[in-house]
UniProtKB/TrEMBL annotation:
<dbReference type="InterPro" id="IPR027417">
    <property type="entry name" value="P-loop_NTPase"/>
</dbReference>
<dbReference type="InterPro" id="IPR002586">
    <property type="entry name" value="CobQ/CobB/MinD/ParA_Nub-bd_dom"/>
</dbReference>
<dbReference type="Pfam" id="PF01656">
    <property type="entry name" value="CbiA"/>
</dbReference>
<feature type="domain" description="CobQ/CobB/MinD/ParA nucleotide binding">
    <location>
        <begin position="4"/>
        <end position="180"/>
    </location>
</feature>
<dbReference type="InterPro" id="IPR050678">
    <property type="entry name" value="DNA_Partitioning_ATPase"/>
</dbReference>
<protein>
    <submittedName>
        <fullName>AAA family ATPase</fullName>
    </submittedName>
</protein>
């Protein structure tokens, strides 16, 4: 069993969307997937309620419950994806500590990028691979992504090679308890998620 933590001390950057998209991609790859929703706002749990499929399994977890939840998942889940709250929390460090791989979604905007060093700091105590994932990039040209990568690298961090652009399909899918791979297969949004999952899968292989 491997664990991915998704963290960023900023709301609206796509943490929960990324957790759902990667979970569905992994499940479609044949993995047994559990999302641990550690955000009191429970947006992934609510998405699961809008959903019919039984994969991924979504369970809410407090920080205190996390060790027990992970223990219960052993032997059942192949992959656990932990979604964390948008603000400074005790949940995010606990998730990072439990993780084999940490993903920090950010939009190309100055506000989340300014917050990123705080989230990077909380990862620093643990020797986990950590990558920023640029999300909601402007689909019209590469300039914004190039600039955002430079900002991330200047912080001493690494960015994932795959970028997710701003695509309405993500919002529409969420409304129906789906992800873009399910609601709009073959769309650019779905292709980007597939590419990101392929990269994540190889990172997880390398960290075994
Ligand atoms: N790549 C994207 N393109 C367009 N909308 C997106 C994208 N990623 C996320 N969203 C939307 O942005 C909003 C915030 O995303 P969410 O995953 O809830 O962020 P967080 O969990 O970091 O607060 C949601 O309405 C979601 O549907
Ligand atoms: Mg969220």
């Amino acid at each position: 069993m491997q664990v991915i933590a998704i963290a960023m001390q900023k709301g609206g950057v796509g943490k929960s969307t990324l957790a759902r998209s990667l979970a569905v991609a992994a499940a479609r790859d044949g993995l047994s997937v559990l999302i641990l929703d550690m955000d009191a706002q429970q947006s992934v749990s609510q998405w699961a309620e809008r959903r019919d499929a039984d994969m991924p399994v979504v369970v809410f977890s407090t920080e205190n419950e996390l060790p027990k939840r992970l223990d219960q998942a052993k032997g059942v889940a192949d992959l656990v994806i932990i979604d964390t709250p948008p603000a400074r929390s005790t949940e995010a460090p606990a998730a990072v500590e439990a993780a084999d791989l940490v993903l920090l979604p950010t939009t190309p905007d100055v506000e989340p990028l300014e917050q990123m060093p705080r989230t990077l700091r909380l990862c620093r105590g643990f020797s986990r691979p950590v990558y920023a994932v640029v999300n909601m990039a402007n689909p019209t040209g590469p300039a914004e992504v190039i600039q955002t990568r430079e900002v991330i690298e200047a912080m001493g961090a690494r960015a994932a090679p795959v970028v997710l652009h701003r695509r309405k399909a993500h919002r529409d899918a969420s409304a129906s308890g789906l992800t873009v791979q399910e609601s709009e297969p073959g769309s650019k949004a779905a292709e980007e998620v597939a590419d990101l999952w392929a990269w994540v899968r190889s990172e997880l292989q390398n960290s075994k």
